[in-house]
Design a protein that fits this description.
27% helix, Rossmann fold, 7 helices, binds S-adenosylmethionine, 221 residues
């Protein structure tokens, strides 16, 4: 066991529908497990990076059709019930895989500075300049110093466990959201998330509408 997760009650979100049909054989599901180090002998490499960037460059022109009030309500629920209200460190948040910037405004209400990191140029160029600071980079190689960010937020984006471990200080938060729950192509269960991370982690998980999410930090024990 690499950590402990407490399940919070599920909350309904009116009108929230899964927008994806991901399953175990979806190419981005396989890439998700690969990025997380859950596939032996298949590391994230230059070919994987190029494949993923091309995949999301192609989807970028229509990505706005995947935004909805329901999906925003999911992220709002995570921030309300998952992120501790007494956050001592609410300075820098890295939003990895920020896409067209749909959730950056919500994150900017919670952290003073949001660094929105995106691999696909076609996604990045459709995101508004504000709020936040936007950068084209690979989440497997974040352009930030060790232990320098208070939270890494992944809304339907890959988990790179070693990089998350590097950039978060001991009490840093990892926020993991799958907007379409198990139907999300880039889906991991909360158990997979803490299994993939180095060391012991603890936190909370829940369901909001069709979504699944968890918020974890390193275990104090
Ligand atoms: C499924 S989309 C989610 C976009 C947005 N978070 C949302 O939920 O609408 C995944 C996003 O992560 C980006 N992405 C994939 N791999 C990445 C990486 N290694 N580093 C940074 N961004 C990445 C993709 O380009 C894409 O914009």
């Amino acid at each position: 066991m690499a950590g402990s997760i407490s399940e919070l009650p599920a909350v309904p979100i009116e009108g929230h529908q899964p927008m994806a049909v991901g399953s175990a054989d979806h190419p981005m599901r396989q890439m998700t497990r690969r990025a997380a180090g859950l596939v032996p002998d298949a590391p994230w490499d230059d070919a994987a990076r190029a494949e993923v960037a091309a995949y999301f460059d192609d989807l970028a022109p229509t990505w706005h059709t995947r935004t909805s009030p329901g999906r925003e309500a999911v992220v709002a629920d995570v921030l309300e019930r998952g992120v501790p209200t007494d956050l001592a460190a609410a300075d820098v948040c890295v939003e990895l895989g920020s896409g067209i910037g749909a959730y950056t405004p919500l994150l900017a209400q919670r952290w003073r500075r949001v660094l929105a990191v995106e691999l696909a140029f076609e996604m990045l160029q459709r995101a508004p300049a504000e709020p936040g600071h936007r950068v084209l980079a690979d989440g497997a190689l974040l352009p930030v110093a060790d232990g320098s960010v208070d939270a890494v937020v992944l809304v339907n984006c890959f988990l790179f466990p070693l990089e998350v471990d590097r950039v978060l200080p001991p009490d840093g938060l990892l926020v993991w959201v799958n907007s379409s729950g198990t139907h999300t192509p880039i889906h991991l269960s909360s158990t997979d998330v803490v299994t993939a991370l180095p060391g012991r982690w603890e936190g909370v998980a829940s369901e909001a509408g069709e979504a699944t999410w968890c918020v974890v930090r390193r275990s104090a024990a």
